[in-house]
Design goal:
Elements (H helix, E strand, L loop, with lengths): L4 H36 L5 H17 L5 H17 L1
Helix pairs in contact: 1-2, 2-3
Length: 85
């Protein structure tokens, strides 16, 4: 544990931000999994699920959790999956 006051604060802030980022990443992963399941089951609401998943990815980019190119790659792969089915 650091002794300097500013270092103590940085540790607290980093822990809090890490937790927030983890929540956002988990939401993205869950959305992708739901979309993949919808594709596998040939679900009727595939387009709706795609829209929700892309929305989660875009929110992660806005919050700085994902890089914009990473998001573009993920969205592109999802779109390929949707077209393939």
């Amino acid at each position: 544990m650091p002794n300097i006051k500013s270092a103590i604060k940085r540790v607290k802030v980093t822990e809090k931000k890490t937790l927030q980022n983890k929540i956002v990443k988990t939401k993205v992963k869950n959305a992708v999994k739901r979309f993949e399941n919808a594709v596998a089951n040939n679900s009727d609401d595939l387009a709706e699920q795609y829209k929700l998943t892309v929305s989660q990815i875009d929110k992660a980019v806005t919050k700085g959790v994902l890089h914009k190119n990473t998001a573009a790659r993920k969205k592109s792969r999802l779109a390929k999956m949707m077209v393939k089915e």
